[in-house]
Amino acid sequence: MDAERMPAEAELAEIVEIGEGFLDCSLPGERFDHRAHLIMTTYLLTHYPERNWERDLPEHIKRFNVAHGGVNDHTRGYHHTITLAFLRAVSSIVWSTQVQDPVVACSPLT
User: What is the pTM of this model?
Assistant: First the structure.
C-alpha cells in the first residue's frame, strides 16, 4: 500500500462525509474546495445513480450556498452552465469506467 494513501475505509468515510455533508449542508463551506467538488459529484453519481443530477444538483448547490452564507445571483453562487459542464465531464469519466464503487471512482482524488 502506498504510504500516502488512506486505507479504503478511511477513504470511504471521507467520501461519504463530503457527499452526504453536501446534501444535508453539514459539510463546512471552507472544506468545499475543488477536490471536494470532484469527490461530491463522483459520490452522487455512484451512490445515487437513479437520480437525475442535471435536474437535482442545481437546487442542492443553491441550498448549500445559502446555508453557508452565500448568495445566488447573476454574479455569485450557483452558475448553471459551469455546473452542467462540470457534471457532464465527471459523469463521462465515471460512466466510461463503469465504476460503481465510490472509493475506486474517487481514488485518484483522495
Answer: 0.83
Range of the domain at 93: 8-106
| Under 8 Å between Cβ of 110 and 15 | yes
Asked whether residue 88 is assigned to any structural domain, the reply reads yes
Number of domains in the chain: 1
Give the separation between CA 9 and CA 15, rounded to whole angstroms.
10
Cell digits for 57?
A: 444538483
- pLDDT tens, residue by residue, 37-65: 999 999 999 899 999 999 999 999 999 99
d(CA 58, CA 81): 10
In degrees, rounded to 5, the angle at the alpha carbon of residue 61 between the alpha carbons of residues 9 and 45 is: 45
Which cell is 95 given? 460512466
Does the residue 102 lie in any domain?
yes
Closest CA to 77 of 60, 90, 92: 60
Does any domain span residue 3? no
